[in-house]
Amino acid sequence: MEYIYKPEGITYRKTEDDGVSIILTSAQNNQLFLNATGTEILNMLPEYKSSSSLLETLEKEYPDVDSRVLEFDLLEILKLLEIYGIVAIESENNGIDRMPDIYPEEDALEYSLAGDLNYKRISDFISGALTDNSIKHYVDIDPKYYAPQFMRLRVMQNLEYGIFASKHNDLHGYVSVSFPVDYSTVMVINSAFFKNEMSISEMSIVFIGMINRFLRLALAQKTVKKIRITFFSDEKNNEFLKVITEAGFRHEVTLKDETIKGDMIFYYYPI
Question: Is the pLDDT of residue 104 over 60?
């Protein structure tokens, strides 16, 4: 992976005695915290132009650490810095950033949890979906809402989590949800995006796969009795309604004239 270090992306930086760095970035004036490992990698970036050469140095400095662990940590830091405009990645092997939850079949879809390694790729996918004719469901049309740094922030604040579906590193879908909080037993779907030119049946299959992946995560720590999705009675939602009904979602209630956009419609999937 080749990269360009962009020091102009940092407007302020302070490093504590324990190696933790507090950084203000020029992109959206975001605040970023790096642990001691991240700080060390950041300090080394100007000396190299590729992750492979930087990795060689790390392997010499940490001979007792598995090289695969070092590589994963390095790539995660580079992807994180890319999100905040401190690094520009010029070329990469897209297969490197796969998450561990991969189905073994060659042609099977991979359902992976969104994280620092792939926020940028997901954000680019959503930006394209917002401007094309693909079927989608979203909470905010402002592209800034889906900027990688804001997607990451919502996850860090436990407000939202994302799953994406891909095949041979080509994204086919993305879904974000909010897990139940306090005494609730309802998992809420916030947004869903699909690759353009997919059929309703194909989207339903991808949608179910992503939802099932979420359920495995949620049920390990929460009580979930239903999944809910809410949208307005706009014509643009008619195709998405076909996707979720084919996936097994049922109409729960319609609140007439609830908003200035029209009726508010609730669909659910019982667990």
Answer: no
Answer yes or no: is 71 within a domain: yes
If asked whether residues 231 and 140 sit together in one domain, one would say yes
The C-alpha atoms of residue 30 and residue 113 are separated, in whole angstroms, by: 23
Tokens of residue 234, six digits: 């706009």
Question: What's the domain range around 155?
Answer: 110-270
* The overall pTM is greater than 0.70: yes
Identify the domain boundary among 62, 91, 120: 91
**Mean pLDDT value across the chain:** 84
DSSP of 155-194: HHTTS-EEEEEEETTEEEEEEEEE---TT--EEEEEEEEE
3-state secondary structure of 145: helix
| Alpha-carbon span 270 to 139, nearest angstrom | 23
Cβ pair 174, 123 in contact under 8 A? no
**Residue 77 sits in the same domain as residue 122:** no
